[in-house]
Amino acid sequence: MSRASEPAASAQHRLRRIEGRHNALVKELHQAFAHAELTDEGECAIEGVRIVEEAIRSGLRFRAIFFRESAQTHAERILPQIGAHVETLSLPDKLFDSVVPSETPQGVAALVRLKEFSLNDVLERLQVGPIIVAAGLQDPGNLGTILRSAEAFGSAGVILGEGTVSPFNSKVIRASAGSVFRLPVIRAKTAGGLDDICSKLRTNGVHLIATSSHKGTPLDQAPLTGPAAIFIGSEGAGIPKSLTSQMDNTVAIPHSPQVESLNAGIAASIVLYEAARQRRDVTPQL
Q1: 66: enclosing H helix or E strand
Q2: Separation of alpha carbons 150 and 154, rounded Å
Q3: Domain tally, the chain
Q4: What is the arithmetic mean of pLDDT over 32-43?
Q5: Comparing 51-65, 115-129, 242-256, which segment has the lowest mean pLDDT?
Q6: Structure confidence at residue 4 as a pLDDT band (50, 70, 90)
Q7: 13-22, 116-125, 154-163, 184-193: which has the minimum mean pLDDT?
Q8: Together in a domain, 73 and 132
């Protein structure tokens, strides 16, 4: 056997062929994708070569990895990066395509366990940057963009309020480009939801800041260097009135008057960049 054929043979040897969706792991993968939630075992469904490799790079624990039968080259590329304890399954193309949500699947999916974080974990990272609070954000592309920008520009973490799209949605994961694997993300599931979160943030000296497309302190004049939580509302209704009354300040992003508003992902990214700029300007130069 030539050396060039050795990886292919090794990958083929590891793969267990599954013929139907009756397999327990296939069922879990399908349900996790369909409901955009964790499995009963606490694993998240992911798909795509780049996303799977980001999960590996992020040190996530894999339970199982699934390959489209025709995606042999992906198996040869990825399996050497996966521990021997991970279940490795090969599915007929038609079965694989029926399980994953993408219209044009790349041929690799996995069940992985994401890192778990608490509000205290987020509060301990306030020196990294502001907390982002998504209050009813429903577009998965916007949330994924926010997660990516939060990691890129520096954020203590992201808190998801009631009505916000699930962070386990496959479109959120794809748009985050893997940031969801590394950034602290928590969901406000306490009895009081975001009201309770606001109280705890205030107790810890965190400045609560709402964002607005039309009124408020101009962004470049807003105090963003200290402990802060930036609230991003839903695409249509904005921040709920019950939360607006609890804010310490409202900031507005200046833009051309002919543009009604910016989408939530872009708005949050601009605020995060401005916060990073302000922190950089006040950091003493050595």
Answers
A1: strand 61-68
A2: 6
A3: 2
A4: 95
A5: 242-256
A6: very low
A7: 184-193
A8: no
pLDDT at 6 over 70: no
Dist CA 66 CA 75 (whole Å)? 9
- 3-class DSSP state of 47: strand
Cβ-Cβ contacts under 8 Å for 69 (sequence gap 6 or more): 17, 90, 91, 92, 93, 96
| CATH code, domain carrying 227 | 3.40.1280.10
CA–CA separation, 171 and 177 (whole Å): 10
Helix (H) or strand (E) segment spanning residue 250: strand 249-252
**Of residues 52, 61, 64, 62, the one with CA closest to residue 24:** 64
pLDDT in tens, 83-92: 999 999 999 9
User: Two tokens at 167?
Assistant: 């962070």
Helix axis angle, 140-153 to 264-282, nearest 10°: 10
Of 85, 113, 141, the domain-final residue: 113
Residues 6 or more apart whose CB falls under 8 angstroms from that of 189 comprise: none
pLDDT digit string, tens, across residues 100-153: 999 889 999 999 999 999 999 999 999 999 999 999 899 999 999 999 999 999
List of residues 6+ apart from 241 with CB closer than 8 A: none
Q: Which residues constitute the domain of residue 239?
A: 119-282
Q: Please tell me the distance from the alpha carbon of residue 232 to that of residue 208, in angstroms, as a whole number.
A: 11
